[in-house]
Amino acid sequence: MKKQIFKLAILALVALFYSCEKEEIKEVEVEVPKIVEEIAITETSTFNDGIWVSAEGNFGSKDGTISYINDSENGIANFAYQKVNDGTPLAGLIQSVTFSDDKAYVILNDVATIVIVDKTTLKKEASITMGLNNPRYMTIIGDKAYVTNWGSGLDETDDFVAVINLTTNTVEDTISLANGVEQILNKDNKLYVSHKGAWSTNDIVSVVDLGNSNAVTTIKVKEKPDEMFFSEDGQLIVLSSGRGTKFQDVAPFAAIERTAAAIQFIDLSTEAVVKELAFNENEGAELLAYEGGELYYNIGSKIYTIDDAATALSADTGLEVGDIYGLNVRDNKLYTVSFAFTSFSELKIRSLDSGSLIFSEAVGLGASKIYFQ
Known about the structure:
This protein is mainly beta. The protein has 2 helices and 31 strands. The longest helix has 26 residues, at 2-27.
């Protein structure tokens, strides 16, 4: 009799456990990648509502490409520029893209060229080939553009910002700056330039006062400053990755020993660092995104999030995303592109609420930048 009662008790527990497990399974919502179709490009195709992904291509092969994903994120067009322009490639390594109201300026670093396209149709309108030398990034103020140029990359004295007249598409002036100019932003008629250091290293942000005869001041930060954003309360946020002193010997050749790295906040009125979020020893981030007062950065293959009012970096475990080469955030979704130069990169979109993958598609070789239109 006792054995029978014991067996019944065990069966009851198993049934209860199974019932609870079934309930838990019902409550879990699993997101799955969308079904994405290839967009057929026609004479009436438009590209200004959606996502652009620029891919560098192989260094030296001059095969940079642009991929377009529609705003619904259920259609993709790879090699979009070539398809629109009768099969003609951009013919260079795409460093970055800058947008005006109606145009996209595609900076081809290795051939010192800026290709100007209609950002709605992606049709080429013109190109700038004179007055540039290893161009990197652009910012636009009115009818002028300001483009950072490394020069030779090895010469620490030949870096400059090219001033471009966007009416004539010609370089009309240059502003000499310290070594390794990189990202460039503008605010209140001033330019803010991070100095990553080209093939060397640097640890400053230059401020160019366009209203004061292009007078230049510098702000000392950690080594290799790159990504910059203006915070919602008007401060300049700068990510400095630190100088790598030892690297892993397999792709993506990330630094495993480095100098001090940090995310720093600069008061624009005093040009002083007012807050520093320091990474642990030999740790640093290469990528940073900013939206709605939230910062998103990588350490190795994980993404971390903090509020811009935070006084320390995240203590969370982070979201595993693999080896990535590009990062952006929009509408509570995380966009990354994989580090890939021997095969096509992958664009992946994840929910920031759940971390689940909701989109995964091949884009160009060496994809590095994600832009929202």
